[in-house]
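Re: the request from the purification team.
They wanted to know what the chain is likely to look like in 3D before they choose a buffer screen. I agreed to run a prediction and write the result into the notebook, where they can find it.
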Amino acid sequence: MQSAKIPSVLLPGREARGFTLVELLAVVAIIALLLGILLPALGQVRLKAKEMSAQTQLEGIAKACESYQLQFQAFPGYFSEEDIGTGNTSNNLTSTENLVISLLGRVVPTASASSNVYWPSDVSPSSGYRVDLDEIGNGPQMRTSNRTYGAFYQPKTGEIEVISGSTTTASPDEMPELIEGALSKLPVLYFRARQGKTELASNRFGDGGNNIFAYGQNTNYTEAAALQTTDGTETNQLDNTCLSSSNNNDAMDNMAWLVADPRLADETVMARDATEPIRGQFVLMSAGENKVYAEASAVGGTINDFDDLENFDDQRIYGGR
């Protein structure tokens, strides 16, 4: 009978052959190639996840605004646009901070307020009321009846902070902002339409009293040269956004494009004297991964059509229509 052959690796006195240098280098090269393919793909997956998280956050704020409107027949904003600024000026209170007061509360009589209070100096008269910073998160309170409501929005950790570097004249700026917490870690811009204004393209955005959306509502952010994110990154909005009227003559036209309704507006008559509908009664906007609101370089400084809006990595929500 023929005996079975025993593999040489099992025979005593024989040493197993190791990998050669060439074989090791080939393995390393294959691993490096795979990493080169997989890492960018994983980066894109992470970015998409962050974008989805940012969009979900804005949708949550928009739903809170809609719920507020159902309760009070007006979209959030304790102070009027005239109070917080319709012109191209920096004010003590932004529209985003005005949103916080409405959704999270609360303005209370001075006599019952804590010692941690705030009132924008641009707004007068105070009439014996203050924003109680210790009550933010507990919901709004009616002035006339003192009836309280639960908060309309529940921000997650990192989504409501006091930021620095805005052009606000308050020192320090005590009012917190709603922060987009996944991508930019910068304030969410909130614009509320002023009722009774004619829907001319020239009236969509501007620095005068006839505009539907008042430019001055958030110039503290868009005109800031050193706006800081919540993780300490300094951003220069003034020189990089196409929404800064200080450095961009087309800033108002650019903003008009942002709120025009592409489903109904005729691009051939998008000159600022054209009558076209706006997209919503309020706008929520956050900067993207580049941490710049509507980056000018993405459109060469000027928005010329609706397709140009796709060049921005910003997140936008239009509500109230």
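For the purification team: Residues 36-319 form one domain.
Please add any questions underneath this entry.
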